[in-house]
Design goal:
Subcellular location: Cell membrane
Strand content: 5-15%
Protein name: ATP-binding cassette, subfamily B
Largest sheet: 6 strands, mixed
Number of domains: 2
Keywords: ATP-binding, Membrane, Nucleotide-binding, Transmembrane, Transmembrane helix, Transport
Distance between the termini: 49 Å
Helix content: 55-70%
CATH class of the largest domain: Mainly Alpha
CATH superfamily of the largest domain: ABC transporter type 1, transmembrane domain
Membrane topology: Multi-pass membrane protein
Number of helices: 20
Strand order of the largest sheet: 6-9-10-3-11-12
CATH architecture of the largest domain: Up-down Bundle
Pfam families: ABC_membrane (PF00664), ABC_tran (PF00005)
CATH topology of the largest domain: ABC transporter transmembrane region fold
């Protein structure tokens, strides 16, 4: 599935499907939308009647010369009351509609984020982080404006109906002249709808690439500066930025040609035609009432302006359809993180692992693991070694259930791993990665991940992995601030915090994915005792970068191209004189050098 491309055009059927998907989120707020539309109808009715009040006053009183002060006051007060009532209806209409829109979009954003964090890792392998962020932020924000399309649509519809009724009541022949221009407006709508979707799709896709480039640049800012890549990155960013600018220019040109300027021209033409007819009639028989002229002059704007707003909203409508399609695309991506079998209830008690004939592929075509077999008894340590791409991390991904496997068996304590609830796996299997990610907050929250552990328990976990000493040496101790990524701390300190994060959960199985690969030898020696404490009494699987750290492993597997090519203890593999022997000798030689 291609998740990073967006369609540039949509059929009416596709637009309807996207609209149905979005409208489903309004279910809890339809009462508010309905009340808003009722208030909107009141606004339109009053707006259409106000010119009639002035028209009747002009023709029935001013023209006849019998407009007394009392009549003038009564008409003025009546007009004022209607205007105040219209303002109240407008407030109710806008408040209810905007609140319902915000809550609906909030639900969309929650649903989208909830879906994203449950997606399988394969999705994040395919889609840049910036693109995902754009889906959850920019695209959902666009939907707020998308709902305003329907505010303008119904507002325009109610206005046109109310004004149309008023015009036909006053003079049906003149009203027909106004309505004769409707086919021209409908033609504009057709032309705009045909070309706007493609332009807005290009604009949204350019914005997504812009966000992705920005996110990547910020994440890799240290590399950019270290290798003096600022000019190249600026040039690449400018290229993407200019693509977005060009797409925006195309939108502005289209909107300037087909939206309000075109409607204003039609309105002026209709009004000129009506004035010509009224003037001609006045010259012929002097039968034109001045109040009617005033009313139709007012109605020209009241009739065409809402139509212009409706067409103007088509630009937002097309933008919303594109954003809706991108949201729908994410929600339709159903390769979720692996789940347990229905009714799964097995528990991890001892931490015994047995893998039989395991084969695995990320893309369904190229196997990265082929017929993997091994056993790890409770409390034993298994080490995985091999060159980059040999399949070490893939074994971890399968064991942690980050990816689904289709061939072979993975057993823990005699239970198929698919029969163990995911919550049980996450609670009983502790993972320490090569790169320790720290969240905004403080050290204590990064250890507990906001679970309910008391201070004594947190400190005990830190002491267990030898992290307590450096934490107490920092201002604020366990409540010292942590910025994203833990950049304020050294790599070794971040890793010790991640050790405490893992050990506080008291896992039965410990997985160390090259946990000391990014740490210098001196620092590694300081934290090795923390690792030793963590491993004691636990089944441990280690992906080893430095072979000297796994000499005491109960079993070592050497992998190449997804297959186990050697197996045994450190001494057995050295004595065999194979690949492991060569790797160990090479590292020993480099260390001596």
């Amino acid at each position: 599935m291609k998740t990073t491309t967006t369609k540039t055009s949509f059929s009416l059927k596709e637009q309807w499907q996207i609209f149905k998907m979005l409208i489903a989120f309004t279910k809890g707020y339809r009462g508010q939308f309905l009340m808003s539309f009722i208030a909107m109808a009141g606004v339109s009715g009053i707006a259409a009647y106000l010119p009639v009040v002035i028209q009747q006053y002009m023709d029935n009183y001013l023209r006849m010369g019998n407009a007394t002060l009392m009549i003038t006051i009564r008409v003025s007060l009546f007009y004022l009351v209607l205007t105040i009532l219209k303002s109240i209806f407008e407030y109710v209409q806008n408040y209810l509609f905007q609140m319902a829109s915000e809550r609906t979009v909030g639900d969309i954003r929650d649903t989208l984020f909830d879906h994203v964090i449950k997606l399988g890792m394969r999705y994040f392998d395919q889609v840049p982080n910036g693109t995902v962020v754009s889906r959850v932020t920019n695209d959902t924000e666009t939907i707020i404006e998308f709902w305003n399309v329907f505010l303008n649509l119904f507002n325009g519809l109610f206005n046109v109906i109310a004004v149309g009724i008023a015009m036909f009541t006053l003079d049906w022949e003149l009203a027909l002249m106004f309505t004769a221009f409707l086919p021209i407006i409908l033609l504009l709508v057709y032309i705009y709808q045909r070309y706007s979707t493609r332009i807005y799709s290009q604009m949204r896709e350019s914005l997504s690439r812009l966000n992705a480039r920005l996110s990547e640049s910020i994440s890799g800012i240290n590399i950019i500066q270290a290798f003096a890549q600022e000019k190249r990155m600026m040039a690449e960013f400018d290229t993407v930025n200019q693509e977005y600018v060009v797409a925006r220019k195309a939108m502005f040109k289209m909107d300037a040609l087909l939206l309000m300027p075109a409607i204003n021209l039609i309105e002026a033409s209709a009004l000129a035609l009506v004035l010509f007819v009224l003037g001609r009639q006045q010259i012929i028989d002097a039968s034109v009432e001045i109040g009617v002229i005033y009313a139709f002059t007012s109605y020209s704007k009241s009739f065409f302006h809402p139509l212009g707003q409706m067409i103007d909203s088509l630009s937002i409508f097309q933008d919303g359809i594109v954003s809706g399609s991108r949201i729908k695309e994410v929600l339709n991506y159903q390769e979720m993180a692996p789940t347990s079998l229905p009714g799964a209830s097995a528990h991890i008690t001892d931490g015994e692992i047995s893998v039989r004939d395991l084969s695995f592929s990320y893309d369904g075509e190229k196997s990265v693991l082929k017929n993997i077999n091994f056993d790890v008894k409770p409390g034993q340590t298994l080490a995985l070694v091999g060159q980059t791409g040999s399949g070490k991390s893939s074994i971890i991904n399968v064991l942690m259930r980050f990816y689904e496997f289709s061939h072979g068996k993975v057993m823990i304590d005699g239970h198929d791993i698919k029969e163990i609830p995911i919550e049980e796996l996450r609670a009983k299997m502790g993972l320490v990665l090569q790169d320790s990610f720290m969240f905004y907050g403080d050290i204590a929250n990064n250890i507990t991940l906001h679970k309910d552990y008391n201070d004594e328990y947190i400190q005990a976990a830190a002491q267990f992995v030898k992290a307590d000493d450096f934490i107490r040496a920092i201002d604020g101790n366990y409540h010292a601030r942590v910025i994203e990524g833990g950049d304020a701390f050294s790599t070794g300190q971040n890793q010790l915090i991640s050790f405490a994060r893992t050990i506080i959960r008291e896992p039965k199985i410990l997985i160390l994915d090259e946990a000391t690969a990014n740490i210098d030898t001196a620092t590694e020696q300081k934290i090795q005792s923390g690792l030793d404490n963590m491993r004691r009494g636990r089944t441990t699987i280690i992906i080893a970068h430095r072979l000297s750290t796994i000499k005491d492993a109960d079993k070592i597997l050497v992998l190449r191209h997804g297959e186990i090519i050697e197996s045994g203890t450190h001494d057995e593999l050295i004595a065999a004189g194979g690949t492991y022997h060569d790797m160990y000798q090479l590292q020993t030689y480099q260390k001596d050098e």
